[in-house]
Structure formats: C-alpha cells, structure tokens
Design a protein that fits this description.
alpha/beta; two-stranded antiparallel ribbon; 7 strands; elongated
Length: 206
C-alpha cells in the first residue's frame, strides 16, 4: 500500500519554458539567444548548477565572464528563474492530499535559483504542502541516477515499493522503478488522480 507520494516539480506541478529564460537573459545582457543557449544549456553550466557543483554567485560570474557583460546578480537570477506557471489541477490535488494528511515530497532536478524562486510565496502550496524535498543541487545527484532515489527513500522512511512517484520524463520513471518505486509517467492531472485513487482511499475531486 502507498505510504508516501513524491512528485516531480517541473512539468508536473509547475509548467515552465526554458525558451523564456533564454529570451530574458539575452535581453538583460544584450547578447543573442544562441549565446545563452550555448553557454547555459549546451556547455554544461546548467548541469553543474543543478548538481550543486557551483552556486548562484559562480553561475552568475561565469555567465558574466563568458559574455563580457555585468548584469546585476538579482536581475540575472530573476531572468533565469521567472519561467514557471502553476498547473492548477495539480495544485488542487496537492492541497487536497495535504489536508488529508497524506505524506508528500518533491523529487526534482533543479537549481538553488529555481527552487528559491518558486518558494518565495508566488505559489501558495509551495513549500508548505510537502514534508520532504529531494533536490538535485542539494543531493549532488540528478534523476535518473540511483543516488537521488536512495536519498528519497531514506527521507520517506518506508520501503521503496510503498512510494508512489510521478515524473514527466520516461528515463526518470525508469530510474525510479529500478530503485523499487511504484513509478508512473505523468500525462495529465486526471490520470495522476486516477492512479492515486487506485492506491489510496482518498476523497478528492477536480
């Protein structure tokens, strides 16, 4: 029986658009979007940021040095991070599960900049509806690497088969399944509600 539910963050609880970050950073620094794409998304800088190998200050400084620009760090991080919108039905699902005291967590590949941005109060169910947060930049491991799932198991304090997990990427679902999770691919909020109702006796409606 399910004892704990982990949700992915991006494209499951919150929609996001990397293209928006490219546009905003390009405008802020007066460089082309292709420069931003190459530096952050293609050359490994994002990977280093999301695995905690560099912090926000290093991320900003590397961008400035590579582009010969000097945007203020606050404006830079906002341009990089202001890309999220809530998925309303998933917020409603989380809130109802939380009211019914179902243990919930977030298991996400993310950076400190994105996490701080989404938890600044703009999304009312974050972070208070969740017990635990397994974040790649803190763990130093990204899905689908086994280490991040093992960390999630430890925090949930139950057996892997008792953990329900949904993610929008097939490789991350496969990694969770290999770690013993009851994992499914996220398709729609209604599908996830149906999956949860098959596992838990909960009174939830959309």
């Amino acid at each position: 029986m399910t004892q704990y539910i982990y949700f992915d963050l991006g494209k499951v609880l919150l929609d996001f658009e990397h293209a928006k970050a490219r546009r905003q950073l390009a405008i802020l620094a007066n460089v082309s979007e292709s420069v931003v794409q190459d530096l952050i998304f293609d050359d490994g800088l994002l990977l280093a940021f999301e695995t905690g190998k560099i912090d926000s200050q290093w991320f900003h400084r590397t961008f400035c040095e590579a582009t010969n620009t000097n945007p203020r760090i606050g404006e830079f991080l906002t341009a990089y991070s202001d890309i999220f919108e809530v998925i309303p039905l998933m917020e409603g699902l989380v809130r109802q599960l939380h009211v019914q005291q179902i243990p919930l967590g977030i298991l996400s590949n993310t950076s400190s900049a994105h996490w701080n941005h989404v938890c600044d109060g703009r999304f009312g169910f974050l972070p208070g509806s969740f017990r635990n947060f397994v974040l790649s930049y803190e763990v130093g491991s990204m899905k689908p690497d086994r280490a991040i799932y093992d960390h999630a198991i430890k925090l949930a304090e139950c057996t892997p088969s008792e953990i329900f997990f949904c993610d929008d990427r097939e490789e991350n679902v496969a990694g969770a399944s290999a770690a013993g999770f009851d994992a499914v691919l996220f398709e729609t909020p209604h599908q996830i509600l149906s999956e949860i109702k098959q596992r838990l006796d909960v009174d939830i409606v959309f």
